[in-house]
Amino acid sequence: MKKTGRCLIVHEATRTSGFGAELLAQVQERCFYHLEAPIERVTGFDTPYPHSLEWAYFPGPVRIREAITKIMKD
To answer: What is the pLDDT of residue 6?
Structure first.
């Protein structure tokens, strides 16, 4: 984190009130002055879990790559 100044959090739960939100808050509190770009999250969507569309719901390589590209541009 101190080397790049960037943080990407990836997890399969919903975006709101999930583990990633708490982790983001902890990183923000402790590493604010080292960040060079906003913290980015790639998560499941804020909808009920769709068993039939499981692979579209979870964060995949395409969404992760887009997030990495976004934080590296900032």
So the answer is: 93
Give the integer Cα–Cα distance in Å for 10 and 64: 8
The CATH number assigned to the domain with range 8-73 reads 3.40.50.920
Q: Which residues contact 26 (CB under 8 A, 6 or more apart)?
A: none
Q: What angle do CA 58, 62, 66 make, to 5 degrees?
A: 110
Are 12 and 44 in contact by the 8 Å Cβ rule? The answer is: yes
Query: In this structure, is the dihedral angle defined by the CA atoms of residues 48, 11, 8 and 38, taken in order, positive or negative?
Result: positive
What is the C-alpha separation between 35 and 53, in angstroms, rounded? 35
Annotated domain spans of the chain: 8-73
pTM of the full structure: 0.82
Give dist(CA 24, CA 70) in Å, integer.
17
Indicate if the pLDDT at residue 37 is higher than 70. yes
